[in-house]
Amino acid sequence: MRMEKKIVCFVVLCCLFSLHACKDFMRKEQATAITVEVMKVNTYSDTLYQNYIGKIEEEFSSSLSFSVPGNVEQVYVREGQYVEKGQLLASLNRENLQSTYEAALAMLKQAEDAYHRMEQLHKNGSVTELQWMDMLTQLEKAKSSANIAKKNLSAADLHAPFSGIIGKRNIEKGMYVMPTMQAISLLSNKNVNIKVAIPENIISSIYSGQKAIIRVAALNDRLYKGKVEKKGVVANPLSHSYEIIIPVSNKDKQLMPGMICNVKILVNDTIPYIVLPLQAVKLSHTGKHYVWLAKDSTAHKQYVVTGPLQKNGIVILDGLELNDLVITKGQQKVSEGSKIMIQ
């Protein structure tokens, strides 16, 4: 009987010791676990846009120059001024051109008089065929010279070939200009092009016809709508980006080349997507984004593919599933396999 009592007491003592040791182990484990906060992955259903910075450029431009040399008599426009098609932009001194034209007219009149006199003689057979042909040649030369002189005289005036905005004015009154010299650059602004640089990791998601909203800060945040028309196929070697063009109507002539604008390009239309707080997404030394997930009281690294920024965080395109627990606070203290305690 005494032996049985001793055995029972021994068993009880062992149980008490084991229970105490287990409690100590649990307390130590809880003491070493990192306290974190998590959020359960959920999806949002909304129109998703990607934001970029764009630059407004003219639809096309033309470099205007005089076709004859001469001294600038007057310049009638300034840079940034809107002009209509056919409007006089600048003119050259006409004195020499006028004299040349009048001399050519005199030569033409003289040739015509000689022609009329010889015409009768030719009918009477008083001149040879060679003399008559020479007369006709001289008359044609005189007509050609007069036409050229008249054209040069009219070329003293420089007119706008289309409606638009004066870009640069490279001439001033009194300057001597040559036909090869750019006098004025004219920019078409009936429509404008918005040029946007798209990073190489996103360019594959951009396509022709994609909707865009353009906000111009210089015009009190006025909004314009457009669609992607062209997508570049050659990357900028420095920025590793591709250029896209979004044409926009400029009926009110308020959009000016050189203006900077904010461009929101539609990424998807009411398709569910995941958004995480910015602080939850980290960048590895290899340039990949990742988050920390809480699984079975343990931290695990999970690489993700990020999308555009939103007001409430950053879009996650791939790498997460619904109901995943993403560590949003305390993630800077954890490493792969760290024991965690969710607060």
Which structural class matches the secondary elements?
alpha+beta
Shape: rod-shaped
Radius of gyration: 41 Å
Could you give me the name of the CATH homologous superfamily of the largest domain? Efflux pump adaptor protein, beta barrel domain
> Overall mean pLDDT score?
87
CATH class wording of the largest domain:
Mainly Beta
How can the largest sheet be summarized?
11 strands, antiparallel
Q: pLDDT under 50 segments (min length 5)? A: 8-17, 19-31
Number of domains: 4
What's the architecture of the largest domain in CATH terms?
Beta Barrel
How are helices and strands ordered from N to C?
HEEEEEEHHEEEEEEEEEEEEEEEE
Strand-residue proportion = 35-45%
Number of helices: 3
Distance between the termini: 53 Å
**How many beta-strand runs?**
22
Give the % helix: 25-40%
List strands and helices in order, with pairings.
Blueprint: H1 2-32, E1 34-40, E2 44-58, E3 61-64, E4 70-75, E5 82-83, E6 88-92, H2 95-124, H3 129-154, E7 157-159, E8 164-169, E9 176-177, E10 184-187, E11 191-199, E12 211-216, E13 222-227, E14 230-231, E15 241-249, E16 260-276, E17 282-283, E18 289-295, E19 298-310, E20 313-318, E21 325-329, E22 340-342
Helix pairs in contact: 2-3
